[in-house]
């Protein structure tokens, strides 16, 4: 499902530009908060959890698709390699962090609140990058 979500957002990204990759974290944040805070029937939890997984997979594909556009040509290969490496590091550390959260004694459903930190960080980082790029573009022009 994540692959399908990734392909869907890449189509939009081709037309509208890299900013469209923020679509998934914008929707992920409230979904994770709802999962962690609102008492839901098990069927609804399952549906929302599957939606969250789809959006996370799509977000991964979407960010990998725009990485090359964020680096100058001279360092594009190195920058893309580093970005991919950091993503793989997250793929290793994510399950470890998940295990720590689950073994903490916190109710399992509340772990979604902790996971909501991730899309919040993505959105804050994107806002910061946008600000830096805007300043750089304004100063050079």
Give the key terms:
single chain, 141 residues, mainly alpha, 6 helices, globular
* Proportion in helices: over 70%
Order of helices and strands: HHHHHH
Strand content: under 5%
Count of beta strands: 0
Number of domains: 1
DSSP helix count?
A: 6
Gross morphology is: globular
Which secondary-structure class do the elements indicate?
Answer: mainly alpha
Radius of gyration: 17 Å
How would you describe this protein?
The protein has helices spanning 2-16, 23-37, 42-70, 76-103, 111-115, 117-140. It has 141 residues and is an all-alpha fold. The protein has one domain (2-140). The N and C termini lie far apart (43 Å).
Secondary structure: elements and pairs:
Blueprint: H1 2-16, H2 23-37, H3 42-70, H4 76-103, H5 111-115, H6 117-140
Helix pairs in contact: 1-3, 2-3, 2-6, 3-4
Offer a quick outline of the entry.
The chain is mainly alpha-helical.
